[in-house]
Each structure stands twice: as C-alpha cells, then as structure tokens.
Amino acid sequence: MLGEGIIKGMVVTATNFFGSYVSAERLVTVQYPEERLPPQENARNFPFLVYDGDDPDRGLRCVACKICEKECPPQCIYIVLERDEKGKPQKRPRIFDLDISVCMSCQICVEVCPFDAVKMDTEYELSDFDRFKSLLLNKQRLAKSNTYYRKIHPAEAEEVDARLADQVAKAEAKRKATAMAAATAVKPAPAAQPALSQ
Amino acid sequence: METLEQIKARIEAALPGAGLRLIPNDSPANQPSLLVDNAHAVAVASFLREDAQLQLDYASNVTGIDWPESVRKEKVKVKKVIDGVEKEVEELIEKKRPGFLEAVYHLYSMTLKQGPVILRLRTENRSDKAHLPSLTAVWRGAELQEREIYDLFGIVFDQHPDLRRILMWDGFQDHPMRKDYVEPDDYEYEPTPHDKVLEKAKRHYASEANR
Amino acid sequence: MINTVTEHAGGAASSAGNLPGVATEPNFAITPKISGDGSREGELLEISMGPHHPSTHGVFRMDVVLEGERIVKLKPVFGYLHRNHEKIAEGISYLGSMPYTDRLDYFCSLTNNWAYALSVEKLAGLQPPERAEYLRVITAELTRLINHTCLIGFLVQDMGALGTPLMYAFREREKILDLFEALTGARMMCNYMRFGGCRVDLPPGWLEQARRVVDNYPRFLDEYESLLTENEILVARTQGVGVLPARLAINAGVTGPMLRASGVDYDIRKVDRYGIYDRFDFRVPLGAHGDVYDRYMVRVLEMRESVKILQQAIRGLPDGPIMDAKAKLRNFRPKAGEAYGRIECPKGELGFYLISDGSPNPYRYRVRPPSFINLTILEDMCLGQKVADVVIILGSVDIVLGEVDR
In a 3-state reduction of DSSP, which class is residue A19? Predict the structure, then answer.
C-alpha cells in the first residue's frame, strides 16, 4: 500500500510524543536554569589551585616549578616565582594567572604537576561581560581548599590524600633514620676531645 | 607483499633510466621510501598502478615537506704539514645540503589489500625551480592534496588540472607552512603576555610607535 | 520497491547504473566544459551556496552554476575554518598536540586521539597493554555509534524532516556522552589516549552502565529504522541520487562508508588489523548501487555491527595496566625517522604522518583528513542533479569542517 512507510513512521512519532508524558525514558530534558543536573564525578571544566588547611597563602601546594606553564598547549598560564627581600626564591608563586578565555580544559597541567597542586574544577557558570577582568583568574580566585576538592571529586581526592600522607610518612621515617644514624656517629667524638683541648 | 628493493629492481627493469634511490627509515615503523626523479615520476606512477602484482590503485596521502638549507659539521681526519712534520689532524669541515621541497605519496592497493609503498619527489630548490610533475592523472585522489601543497608550501605541480589556492584566500601571498614563514602582525591585546606572545607584543607596539 | 543491500565478503565492483542525467562512463575529467559557443549566455545562473548555510555542515561554500534547476558545474571552496593545526603542532610537544587532535573532527574525538596515538606508537616503538587496547576499541566503537546516528539525523533533517529523527538520535548520543564524561572528564573533547595506552582507568560502575546502553541500542535502532527505512519520501529522494561508481571511488581516494556503499570491500579494521580487531567477529556491509540510500543503509548496518563488537569487547575486557611501562609523559623524544599510522574512523581513513628529528617537537606533522578527500568527487556526483539533491549528497558524504580545513 502506498504510504505504509509513512504511517509506520508516524506511529513511532506518536509513541514518542505521548510516551513522553508517562515514561521518563522518553522525556530526557530538564528545565534549566530552574533545575540543574548535578555534574558527574569525573567531569572537568577549568583548573584551580589546591591549598591544605585554612590559609590559602601558606597552605598552597604549588611551589612555582613552572612545569604546567611549559606543558600547557595554548600557553594560558603565567607564573612568577616569589622571592624575598634578598632575592632568594621562596617555594611559592607570587603571580599565578590563568586565562580561561584561552584555556581548553585539556587537563595536561593536572597530569604533569608533580605536587598535586592543580586540579580540575566543575564550575561552568563563569560567563561575564568583561573579558579581561573576569576571565583572567588570578591566584586568589584560583585557590580553593582541599575540603572543596574532596567535595567535588571524592574518589580522586581520597587517592591524592593517601599518596601525600604516604610521602610525608616516608619523609618523616627517613628523617628519623638519618637523625638516629647521626646520633650514634656523634657519641665516640666527645671522648677524644678532652685530650685535644689541653 | 614484496620488499621495496624488489619493487625498485622491477621498476628499473621495466623503465630503464629511471633514477630511483631507496631512502631508509630509522624508526621502528620500518617504512622505507623510494625517491623518484621528476622526469620519470608519471611513468613510475603508472607502472605501479597497472602492474599486476602491485595494483597500487589508491593514493592515500600526499604530503609536502620543507627542508631548508642545512649545514652539518663533520670531523674529518686530514693529513697536514705542521712545523715540517706531517701529522694527521682532525678538522671540522662543513657539509652544506641545499634546501629543497619534497612531496611524499603513500600508496596502497584496494584490490589486493596491500601496502604501503612510499614515493618521494624532490624539487631542485626552494625558490624558482620548485616544480614537480602532478600525479593527478594517475590517481585522482591527489588532486585536492596537491592543491593544498601548492597553497601551503609553494610547490607548483605541472599538468595539474586546477592549481589554485585552497585553504588560504585567493589573494594571499607567501606560503604558510614553510619553515621561514613570517607571520603578519596580528597581535591583539592580552593581559599577561609571556614568552612568544610577549615578543609579538613588543614588535607590535614598536611598529605602532614608528608609524 | 526497496533495493536490498547485498552483504558479501569478497568485493565486487558494481555497475554505474544507467540513470538519466548521470554519465555512465566514470568521469575522470576535473573541469567539464560547458557546451556551446557562448550562445547560451544568460541561460546559466551562478549561485554561491555560501558559508552561512544551515545545510552545509559547517562553514563550507559551493560555487554552483545552474541551468534551471540542474547543476552544470560545481566548485567547492574550503578554508573558512583553517587554523593551520599542522604548524601549531610543529611548535609544541607530541603530548601537547593531543588535545588539538580532539578538535579536528570534533564530532568524534576519541578516534582522532587513537589515530594520533597509533602513529606516535609506530614512530617510537611503544606497545600498549591488552586492557588499554580493549578500552580503545570500546571507546572507538561507541564513537562510531554516535557519529552514524547523528549523521543520519542530519541527513534526514536536510531533507526536511524538521529535526525529529535527529532529536531521537541525540537522545542516544547523550547517553553515550554521559559515559564519556564519566570516563574521560569531558563530553566532546576527550583527550583520553596517550602514547602507550590510555590516560585513566574505568571508574566503578562504568562497565555496567555501558553494557546497559549497548544492550538497549538494537531496540533503539529498530525504532529508528521503522521510522525511516521504508519511508516513501526518503526512498524517493535518495534512491538513484548521487551515484558514485566504484572505479571512480577507488581512484579518487574515497574511503569509509561512502566507498563501501559503492561496493568496494575495504575496511581498514579488516585490512590492517590494527589494535586487536582481529579478535572480534564482525561483518562489513557493502552497498550495491552507490547512491545516497545505500550510504544510509551501510551506516545503519555498520551500527549494528558496532554493537556486536561492543558486546564482545565488554565481555572480554581483561584486567591489567593501562599504560606501557616504557612510555614517558614529559621529555618524550622519539628517534629520528618517520611513520604513517591510519585507522578506520567513522568518516573514512584517518591517518597521521609524522617525521621526527629527535627533538621533543615533531618536524612535520600531517593529518590525512577523510572528509577533505571524500569531497574530491563531489562535483562528479552532483552533475545533472537538482539543487535540492546537492544538499542531500553533501549530507551523505559526511563532512565535518574541522577536519576538512584543519
């Protein structure tokens, strides 16, 4: 019969249309911005800097090694190392600017950072009217605490915390071992000294 | 599939006088290529397509490469007379390799499901003698790719049916993929320029101050 | 009424088909001469189906010369999205190019990643472990599913279906994009493959969700096909339109579903057997006539075969590491040499030709774009057809401008 294919197609369309009132499988949209779907656990948007504890200045994990600046493909990170009055480099960045109008969320900075200082955020409602004031994120804007990181990426944060705690424990054990070795090496020397001082 | 040496031998037997040279490939990929001289390129290409054992009817990829002039320093032992005594001295001589442009063809066979056979064609220099014979008459698939090589590198393909710019606009001068290409001044304000962008910014503001 | 599509293992070239207005001899000439001595001046109309066009799949322009409604000459114009990706890649390291490959064929980013990773692995001699190979196959076949359904949706929308089949296709695409987001972090620009394996392993519960999506897919395909395949309007508009003879297709370097719809049995998954594709049991559908309807049917059948591969791969996924132990992330310097690696991406043969000179940046980085080369014979397919058919033929070629212009 001519038209049979079209009628079959219309049956499918009708099933979908009326079905969207009854089944959740057919109605797949939400009314944004009144309703928002929560982001998935592994989703990534733009990077942010992690700090431990409460102080965003002292607790910042970043040591300004500039590896992320070098590896970033569109070169959107700008880092200046902090130096004290004598010019000695401190292990902190004075300036850490990230231009999110250039950043393409590729996550390479996160992968190459040896100190787990840069991680990916899930915030996406970042649009504004001014390009150069609001889309250039500086260190204060980028620094977010470790509790925030644990909230948005729980599994990843747990693994990172475990690894860092492990590193700290190993460093502590090594320090104790060298201190013990130094203490046992120092003991014979005072016995020889009185002979020399005379 | 037969090795490239065997193919080279057969081509030389069929087309005497064709200047062929095997270019080895050091990487683990093991894909050596065959350098063909420009006068016999179309004949070699037709042979490869019509030959019953090879039947390379599919030109998969046509690439242009820019090899600017390079100077290589080599240590050579030379006998020299110093203070009346003949000694063997190590000297640094410079080996100059003139610049040229190159087109590389990757060929496969769809009927016999074999490949790749890689052909190379080189121009004489990078400026006025940058001409190569077009292989579009043998493999139609090379048509748009040769146009792209003309646009981005500047190799003129003789007997190409429609040689004009394809990716850049029609009035564009210069060839962007060459190693000595100088970008036009298109700096736009950036709040924290660094490295290459900082150089661009300095050049831009310097030229603006001069105007 | 409906021409059946024959599937057969050996390749047999089909005849050109004697259809009115289409040349029976394969047309190897590039610029057909407009017949006449200038006496037809004023009868021909030159139109630019310009870059701002809803049906040209991106910023793509065609200069068309019409005689009434029939096409006499057609010249495609490219370059509106040219970003010179190849020169950018010469300035950054090999790893830094990986996010840029996502943006080539932005519709299916994971297959682009795989092609680049494969070429670099050939150049450097790395071998990914088994689990990584299985993950690559799973993600690549999911990408093939999303590409083909949405392509059919776009094709039918260009015919005037006002977006209903496209939205059904997008519903399935969203489910698969959710899977990608859970695995890689981003829906479209995934940046997932690395040289020597994959970046990150599966999160818990991912495999179950993937299995549910894949097992539900044939039901969706049945519904989609009952909507479209026997539709009289679709059949009348696509059968016999845009015929591509097999000999011309091979000579013009056409690859992918377009080539297989013309009857040529060349699927790089079966020919090169890259990755672990020789472990999976799947068929390659071939068309008999080379027209737009055959390309549509070939894509539908390829989707069914992809579902079969996915079910086998998900069942057989082994445990183990996901990166080659010898692979380095930073300061990666492959030995001097060159390599050409290619895969069967949903649009055709995507290849990367890399020349290394021992430094961290490549000396020459070339993308072999399937969409660009498939457009070589656009003019040959469109001669003698009407203007409305040009839009459908362009839709069946399946171009993405990110790849055409790079």
Answer: helix
Average pLDDT, chain C: 85
Provide the CATH number for the domain formed by B4-66+100-175 in this structure: 3.30.460.80
According to DSSP, the residues that pair with B119 across neighbouring strands are: B34, B105
Identify the segments of chain A with pLDDT beneath 70: 186-198
CA C239/CA C230 separation, integer angstroms: 12
- Rounded to a whole number, what is the distance in angstroms from the first to the last CA of chain B? 64
8 Å CB contact of C253 and B31 = no
Amino acid at B191: P
Q: What is the DSSP string of C308-321?
A: HHHHHHHHTPPPS-
User: A78 and B196 in contact by Cβ < 8 A?
Assistant: no
DSSP per position, A144-157:
EEHHHHHHHSHHHH
Contact A3 C232 (CB under 8 A): yes
- For residue C350, the distance in angstroms to the closest alpha carbon of chain B comes to 10
- Interface ipTM above 0.90: no
Q: By CB neighbour count within 10 A (0-12 exposed, 13-18 middle, 19+ buried), where does A20 fall?
A: middle
Confidence of residue B28 (pLDDT cuts 50, 70, 90): confident
Whole-number Å distance between alpha carbons of C86 and C97: 9
Q: Sketch the domain layout of chain B as residue ranges.
A: 4-66+100-175, 181-211
In this structure, what DSSP letter does residue C386 have?
Answer: B
Nearest to A132 among B191, B194, B195 (CB): B191
Question: Is C181 in the A-facing interface, judged by CB distances under 8 Å?
Answer: yes
pLDDT at A49: 92
Token pair listed for C131? 């689990």
**Residue C24 pLDDT > 50:** no
Chain B residues inside the 8 Å CB shell of C377: 140
Of chain C, the end-to-end C-alpha distance in Å amounts to: 42
Contacts of C61 (CB under 8 A, 6+ apart): C48, C49, C50, C51, C53, C76, C77, C78, C80
Backbone angles phi, psi at A122, to 5 degrees: -115, 10
Percent of the residues in chain C that have a pLDDT greater than 90, as a whole number: 43
Rounded to two decimals, the pTM is: 0.88
Q: Which residues does chain A have within 8 Å of residue C182's beta carbon, measured at their own beta carbons? A: 40-42
- Name the closest residue on chain B to residue C270, using Cα atoms: B113
Q: How far does the CA of residue B122 sit from the closest CA of chain C (Å)?
A: 16
Give the separation between CA C296 and CA C261, rounded to whole angstroms.
9
Least Cα separation, residue A84 to chain B (angstroms): 23
